[in-house]
Amino acid sequence: MLQGHACVYIEAIKKYGEQAQEGVAQEECAELIQAISKKHRGMKHNIAEEIADVEIMLEQLKIINDCFCDVESIKQEKVSRLEKRLEE
After folding, report:
1. How far is 16 from 48, CA to CA, in rounded Å?
2. Integer Cα distance of 38 and 44 in angstroms
3. 3-state SS of 69-82?
4. Cβ-based burial of 86 (10 A; exposed 0-12, middle 13-18, buried ≥19)
5. Residues in contact with 54: Cβ distance below 8 Å, sequence separation at least 6, in sequence order
6. Is the Cβ–Cβ distance between 1 and 68 less than 8 Å?
7. Cβ atoms of 70 and 49 closer than 8 Å
8. pLDDT tens digit string along 20-69?
9. C-alpha angle 60/62/67, rounded to 5°?
10. FRET partner for 70 with CA separation of 20 to 30 A, picked from 35, 60, 64, 81?
11. What is the DSSP letter of 5?
């Protein structure tokens, strides 16, 4: 199910290695958390940029862990569960 920028992601994984890219994913998630915290404190933030970075790394994580189908299935279950909660 590789699409979009998958070739770029694969090349990055090959060049830098899986472990390094998983480390970058951790760092990007932390930066997003920090941006959200800044927003909540009324400070200047870069949430959009950090979301983009996290989304790029999530795609790489799905490639590294070969879990595209699992992620999509779990997302569908969780969205369905959320929808039911919202109807209550």
Report:
1. 25
2. 7
3. HHHHHHHHHHHHHH
4. exposed
5. 25, 28, 29, 32
6. yes
7. no
8. 999 999 999 999 999 999 999 999 999 999 999 999 999 999 999 999 99
9. 165
10. 35
11. T
The residue behind tokens 């998630």 is 29
Report pLDDT for 4.
78
d(CA 19, CA 70): 21
Q: Three-state DSSP class for 88?
A: coil
Q: State the Cα–Cα distance between residues 57 and 44, nearest whole angstrom.
A: 24
Q: Which residues contact 1 (CB under 8 A, 6 or more apart)?
A: 68, 69, 72
What is the token pair recorded at 23? 């480390």
Number of H helices and E strands in the chain, helices first, is 4, 0
- Domain ranges in the chain are 6-87
Q: Residue 43 is encoded by which pair of tokens?
A: 């400070």
If phi > 0 it is left, if psi is from -120 to 50 it is alpha, else beta; for residue 66 that is left
